[in-house]
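Lecture 7 notes: from sequence to structure.
We start with the chain below.
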Amino acid sequence: MANSYRKVYLQIVFAVKHRKALLAREWRQDVFKYIAGIINQRGHYSLAVNGHHDHIHIFFDYNGKELIQDLVREVKKASTNFINNKKLSPFKFEWQGGYGVFSHGYREKSIIINYITNQEEHHRKKSFQKEYFQFLKSYEVEFKEEYVFEFFK
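Predicted structure tokens for the same chain:
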């Protein structure tokens, strides 16, 4: 075969580090737009970026040209600087270490976009902790609870 073709959809999830420095409703959409821009600048294609006060979901068409861990590191670093430099939070902002990454098929694309777009509504019914553990279990990811994110109650 002369050419190579791919279509890889990934969802990345990570959490805010400190309880005092949460993603406030007033400015979190600005951060999500900024992160979508980072994803696009790096040659991927952002499909949905949204979250709640304590975490974020990033769904995108992955170009396969950089390591996922490098992409996550750069997104976290740039968005942390964006939040702190603009003084969006009255407290020092940081993301927790680690992340979850989950792959999705083309047929799931609209379902995942809808799920991520409606995070506010979704989290009226289910905590981030329950949501995240459900992801890990449904994707059959082996984990130890004590090494997963620090969840806020």
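Points to note: The first strand starts at residue 8 and ends at 15. The domain at 8-147 is CATH 3.30.70.1290 (Alpha-Beta Plaits).
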